[in-house]
Amino acid sequence: MKQDRILKKLIPKIGSGFLVTRGDSFNTLARSIVGQQISVAAAQTVWNRVLAASKKKVTPKNILALSVEELRAAGLSARKVEYIRDLADHFDSGRLHANQWKDMDDESVIKELSAIRGIGRWTAEMFLIFNMIRPDILPLDDVGLIKAISLNYFSGEPVSRHEAREVAANWAPWRTVATWYMWRSIDPIPVEY
Q1: 35 with 83: CB under 8 angstroms?
Q2: Burial of 32 (0-12, 13-18, 19+ CB in 10 A)
């Protein structure tokens, strides 16, 4: 609030909030793949079917034990089946260093996650925010963040990534927190998964 005149006004209006980790790494990433480009409600329905197909426990081994047909029957597209199986294979084979992520810097985790099919920078950043609760993530590919910066700082005018980065410079080392307040400024109720 001391660093940014807009947040100084927004934070008291919105109130405090707390990010709480969303569970184990594999489940968080698998859910993000399931939820890509579909509504929250549809994602929950498909996730429930994947959960049922994997004997109520979504683990890398349980996903790899399911056939392509079983995953498709749960509601996953052919592409998402490829993605979730690649994710499971990365975890199962030990190609990921999930047990070391807490000690790795943000960009190293993003690089490792982005090597998995179906996981890009935005998904990796959301993972750092919502699973690892990293305090200084600035997801410049997030439409909601860009929209909120546009509305709060530029009277609704379009904003470039460069301009958004300049605004967010004042937020460091708490850019995750500021991003959360930006999201709340345009959608007061957080999405729950």
Answers
A1: no
A2: buried
